[in-house]
Amino acid sequence: MAVYAKHLRTGETLAIDADTVYETFSVIKVPIMAEVFRQAKEGTLSLRDRLEFHAGDARIPSGVLYVADPGLAPTIKDLLHWMIIISDNSATDMLADKVGRGRVTAFMRTLGLTKTEIKYSDLDWDRRWLGFLDPSYRDATGDRTIDFPFDRYADGTVSEAFRKVIYETEIFFGRSTAREMGRVFELMARGELVSKEASDLMIAILKRQQVNNRIPRYLEGVTVAHKTGDGQPWIGNDAGIMWIKDEPVVLVVFTGRHRGDTGSLHDAVARVAAIVADHFGAKVDPAGLR
User: pLDDT tens, 124-145?
Assistant: First the structure.
């Protein structure tokens, strides 16, 4: 587990294994979102632009877009919301294809973040995962992957194939360190990620996050803007901003090689958040501190 926390007014910082590179899974969607806003500021695109959803854009169930009929044309702003608040991977690949994964990484480099990167698509990931189970899926289209016959395989076999992609291949969804991802959120909280307007809108989207079983779980009366990332049961991440007594505290928790069940992994992340929030004076459910 890597933990990075920083109280932005006082500068008080906690850093545990915060400079080791971890697989981010969907936390990398925050840098993708930042690059979308950067290109919008440059005029390369507009949040009102529409991208047509094609059958091949469907991704193994995450979010809702995979059930849409081809031809739907959501705005880029719509896709941003779906990518963040319900972690829709169809929306994610559509946006990453639009702005360019290399440009996401390049933008992170301009911020001084040398270890934060994205290279592969969610479809690349799924093809490798399913390809371990059935080699004919190694070049499958998105609409074919969503019909994969998982019921023909034991749960343990499917899970082991997923683990192999994480730890035995070159494929990764995203990479970063807890400190570097914390810097992304710090810039956002200070209104300096792309621009004040862009930072405020990114925060507004992150506040609508629907997966709240980690950082917010034990917090009471604390506003949280955050993004989770899952490669269960080995990885369960969360990263964002907590407003404690109206002051922003950045918190990033990355995990890896967990050997227990998913529930205990998520609870461990939630307990870290409870300890940090309690330290800075937040009201916390006592269950999170036991």
Answer: 999 999 999 999 999 999 999 9
Q: Is beta strand 223-231 parallel, antiparallel or unpaired with respect to 219-220?
A: unpaired
Place of tokens 């205990």: 264
d(CA 21, CA 203): 25
Helix axes 101-110, 89-99, angle to 10 degrees: 70
Cβ(173)–Cβ(25) below 8 Å? yes
Domains of the chain listed by start with CATH number: 2-119+172-289 (3.40.710.10), 122-171 (no CATH)
What is the residue type of 95?
L
Task: State mean pLDDT over 244-252.
Answer: 97
Secondary structure class of 244 (helix, strand, coil):
strand
Reported pTM: 0.97
Distance CA 66, CA 287 (A): 37
Contact between residue 225 and residue 240 where contact means Cβ atoms under 8 Å apart: yes
Q: What's the 3-state SS for 179-224?
A: HHHHHHHHHHHCCCCCCHHHHHHHHHHHCCCCCCCCCCCCEECCEE
Which pairs count as long-range contacts for 123-132, CB under 8 Å and 24+ apart, including other chains? 123/59, 123/93, 124/171, 125/165, 125/171, 125/173, 126/59, 126/60, 128/165, 128/169, 128/171, 129/161, 129/162, 129/165, 130/161, 132/161, 132/164, 132/165
> How far does CA 69 lie from the centroid of its chain?
26
